[in-house]
Design goal:
By secondary structure, the chain is α+β, with helices and mostly antiparallel strands. Among the domains are: 61 residues, DNA Methylphosphotriester Repair Domain (3-Layer(aba) Sandwich), CATH 3.40.10.10; 103 residues, Orthogonal Bundle (Arc Repressor Mutant, subunit A), CATH 1.10.10; 89 residues, 2-Layer Sandwich (TATA-Binding Protein). Helices cover 45% and strands 10% of the residues. Strand 1 and strand 2 form a beta hairpin. Helix 13 runs antiparallel to helix 19.
């Protein structure tokens, strides 16, 4: 019998399991009563007998019923929830924030989480349990254990470091939770975990418009800092983690026939593997659900295009700077200005990849830089002022540019800065906050693709694409890039 939250009837769920349908990956899990194990629908083992199957909408719900994760299909690799905007269920937003907290190694108090959603913690527990079938604490514990399971399988990190990275305050608590849920010790799972440590794996739901996503990144890749090579994206990155700044490189390789991304990072970034996995999901929009999005975009002008993805952000400040530098100039010109900024103010770094040798400048660096020095790069005075105001707001903690940040507060803070209007704020929120309903109304490319100069008329037409107008933006941009 299916869980109340499962979107499929049992017969349809079983067909998805029999056909290994990747469209339902992360939306459907099957527990097998004869083995006590739960799997993803893409698991390649022989399909169990129908009467032995129990279907669930989440890994947390499967674990709450006593099932433990499959070591072959590895439920921790499945894509997460696809979120719309504030019209979506509050419980889905809470689940996304709990996933992020688990990967960041944090333990958010439930009242704080409820306050961010504008509800009481009692109401949050009620709607969360109704939506997902488990309590917020049970959901968080599942995400922590699945992250730990992935790190045990895909890395050689010591068990103690895995426990800390997954947000457990002590090794004793970690071992106890692991034994209770999975009925084996972390070291035993590492022995049984099959694969040799290597690249970390992340899954997505097909279809996936890889050409559109990689083309967008390639056209904006800054020499010295980022490069697209076939199906691989390589870049440098600095992250703040547990009070320290970690700098290094990463490589993300797409494996289309397996609907999988393989992420490799430098040894210097390994302490932040949990947050980096979440950043990879955000940067490449791996949690998007085309089954929900594509039907809404059918009326968007231009060639048919399935599986549109929103290019997200590895670093919110970097992406915001790129948007500001892209004001009223071409993509090529914006990339040239960004390259000059990186070469002048970025820190040199060694990587194993030729030509990849520079970090993006930190917010503190640009905030304290001499405006005249920035101006010598060919950046006009108004843009310099906007960049430094943005850098100061980020470095002082007045502006949070990451998924989960308050949308309205972020838009208000951005537009209050000099030189940042609604167009820039919408694009920054779309790419750094993962806001899928952004609509930069005055964008010249959008108006051209819609064959109009009337901003109000374009906005009215876009109402039909809510809550996925951000995806419509990229579909329209792609139509221009592929036109004669």
């Amino acid at each position: 019998m299916s869980s109340p939250a499962t979107a499929l009837h049992d017969a349809a769920a079983y067909r998805a399991l029999q056909t290994h349908d990747a469209r339902f990956d992360g939306r459907l899990f099957v527990g097998v009563t004869s083995t006590g194990i739960y799997c993803r629908p893409v698991c390649r083992v022989k399909a169990p007998r129908r009467e032995n199957c129990r279907f669930f909408a989440s890994a947390a719900l499967a674990e709450s019923k006593g099932f433990r994760p499959c070591l072959r299909c590895r439920p921790e690799l499945a894509p997460g929830l696809s979120l719309a905007d504030s019209s979506d269920v509050l419980a889905d937003q809470a689940a996304r924030w709990l996933d992020q907290a688990a990967h960041d190694g944090l333990d958010p108090p439930l009242p704080d989480l409820a306050a961010r959603l504008g509800v009481t913690d009692r109401h949050l527990r009620r709607i969360f349990s109704k939506r997902h079938g488990v309590t917020p604490l049970a959901w968080l514990t599942t995400q922590r254990l699945l992250l730990a399971k992935q790190l045990l399988t895909d890395t050689a990190l010591p068990v103690t470091q895995v426990a800390l990275a997954a947000g457990f305050g002590s090794l004793r608590r970690f071992n106890a939770a692991f034994a209770e849920r999975y009925r084996l010790s972390p070291t035993a799972l590492r022995r049984e975990g099959a694969a040799e440590p290597g690249a970390l794996k992340l899954a997505w739901r097909p279809p996936f418009d890889l050409d559109g996503l990689l083309g967008f990144i390639a056209r904006r890749a800054v020499p010295g800092q980022e490069v697209v090579d076939g199906l691989a994206v390589r870049r440098t990155l600095a992250v703040e983690h547990q009070g320290r700044t970690l700098a290094g490189w990463l490589e993300a390789k797409f494996v289309p026939d397996r609907c999988e991304l393989r992420l490799s990072v430098s040894p210097s970034l390994r302490p932040a593997l949990g947050p980096l996995l979440q950043r990879a999901r955000h940067a490449f929009d791996l949690d998007a659900d085309p089954a929900r999005i594509d039907p809404v975009l059918l009326s968007v002008p231009g060639p048919a295009r399935e599986g549109i993805r929103l290019p997200g952000s590895w670093d919110g400040f970097e992406t915001a700077v790129r948007v500001v530098l892209g004001q009223q100039v071409t993509v090529a010109a914006a990339r040239t200005l960004t390259q000059r900024l990186v070469q002048r103010f970025g820190t040199a770094i060694e990587t194993p990849f030729a030509g990849l040798d520079r970090l993006f400048p930190a917010a503190e660096t640009l905030a304290s830089a001499d405006p005249a020095a920035i101006g010598t790069l060919g950046i006009v005075r108004q843009r310099v002022k906007a960049l430094q105001a943005l850098a100061a707001a980020v470095s002082e903690g007045r502006l949070q540019l990451r998924p989960g940040a308050d949308l309205d507060a972020t838009l208000a803070a951005l537009t209050a800065l000099p030189g940042i209007g609604d167009w820039s704020a919408q694009l920054i929120a779309l790419r750094t906050l993962a806001w899928p309903d952004a609509w930069p109304a005055s964008d010249i490319g959008l108006l051209k693709a819609l064959d109009t100069r009337d901003v109000a008329a374009a906005a009215a037409q876009a109402e039909a694409w809510r809550p996925w107008r951000g995806y419509a933006v990229f579909k329209l941009w792609h139509s221009l890039e592929n036109s004669p």
